TrEMBL record:
Residues of the GAF domain: 19-150
Taxonomic source organism: Neotamlana laminarinivorans
Domain of life: Bacteria
One Pfam family from the record: GAF_2
Protein name per the record: GAF domain-containing protein
Amino acid sequence: MIFDKLKPQVVTIVSNSNLTIDERLLKICELLENHIEYYNWVGFYFKNGNKEELKLGPYVGAPTDHTIIPFGKGICGQVAVSNENFVVPDVTAQDNYIACSITVKAEIVIPIFVNGENIGQIDIDSNTPDPFTEADERFLEFVCEKVSEIL
């Protein structure tokens, strides 16, 4: 399975202290986007200081206007409030979806916890309808756990 092959590469990237944290996060985005064909946009959002909003961090994929997302707005904003994974098989079926691109069909967002606090998330958009499985969730939880070790 592709996820098992990517896990050691994620660990290698995270442990490379010669790179800044943002450089490591970008390399993780590139790794996932390059090796998982239905991951078409991969990025990180982080809590913006003490504000009730998320700020876009490193990402790969089409440019986005959504550099700041208020808590509760869109899928990412909802995860900031719920502290739970959010898998969206069909973005058109979501009332509170913020469209980034007309090509996006599905989205998955997994929170990142540091000392029990939700400090950010990984956000993945797919141009493929309903591509995400439980295996994606478990793999992305692993990625978030590794990322949390350097934040």
